[in-house]
Structure prediction request, 414 residues.
Amino acid sequence: MIGWKKVFLLVSVTLFLIPLAGQKSAPCTLIVASGKATVSGRPLMWKNRDTSQLLNKLMYFKGARYKFIGLIDADDAEGQEIWAGLNEQGLAIMNSQADDLAFKEKKFDGAGNGAFMKKALGQCATVDEFEQFLQRERGKWDLAANFGVIDASGGAAFFETSSEYYTRFDASDRKVAPFGYMVRTNFSYTSPDYLQGGGFIRFERMSHLAEMARASGQLELKFILQQAARDLNHEKLHSYPLSRPLPDDPAEPLYINTSDTINRNSTASAVVFDGAPSPDRPDLATMWVILGQPVSIVAIPVWPYAERVPRVASAPGQETCALNAFSRKLVAYLYPDKRGRMPQYLNVNRLRTYGGEGVLAKLLRLENQVLEKTRLQMKAWENKKETPGRVAEFQESIADFVLQSLLGEFPDVR
Prediction:
């Protein structure tokens, strides 16, 4: 049995005593896709958030013009920075840190990225408006980021941004996105020295995954949630841990280092934005959130139209939310060795065999139920626009279902 006190101790040690590589930066893996590339015909955007701030939750905001939901660090009690978000107009924004865009002469490092996105979500309704916002704010912020943005009109773009300049890349532009999508990690194409960036292994892996998905007609929400966000393969090392045979001796389990995989030991959360079907239905733009390392938790949907976030996805003050807290306990189970650099190593035997079914298989089974329930509900909403209160009730019921199901499926993870 995994006792509560023991897990709490292990989580505490993992979070606060073990240093993670690149604590000052925020390596992430992203994709922006236009409706021409996706199965649904809607724009799609995704971010795996890698950071030393492993405790994340959601917060609902009222901006200068628009209301929105943002992903924040749990200890950011006032929600001063957001790391991905969606507003009531159907505009979604996310970022990855791009150190090669930092303005070194001013000793800038992108410290303003999160606050900048928060302000943009409260003021901008379209990708073009975001670009206008960039122009107005140029030179006023410490920025070093690849900003991804989609809107309810089908706009989808990356903005490689420093404090002094930016370059726009549209997913509909065949010159920069011949297949209608773009991948980014932690370097930029417009940097004077892209070798100052990072994430090249993850960039290559995600580029391969995205092209396989597009070519086979699978570039859609479920692929991103269940394959891309949770990918543990390391192509450079020919490491494919979910398909290789497990050791016969349980005393010698298979471990993998997840420092360079897409699902990393430093992945705090993941967000997928499923764009609105048309400009007149921004209420249907959906923010899918994985509040923890993707192999340790199930995604839930939220909508700014609901005017609040689920209780189990939020928390007061500097507390983390219930879903994220559960995720951290399951992470402690999957990364059991706390010595030296061993917190970087995931126990694949536990991931694949827990309870006979395996941790990942259980999560995907539950998540498929969430996806189906949400699909049916949204089909009804497409035919008849629901009230914000009813939407809030639905997202609350889904989030509660996920947490209670996880507690039932993993009874000894407490």
User: Anything to note?
Assistant: DSSP finds nine helices and 15 strands in the chain. Residues 359-383 form the longest helix (25 residues). Residues 1-24 have pLDDT under 50 and may be disordered. The radius of gyration is 20 Å.
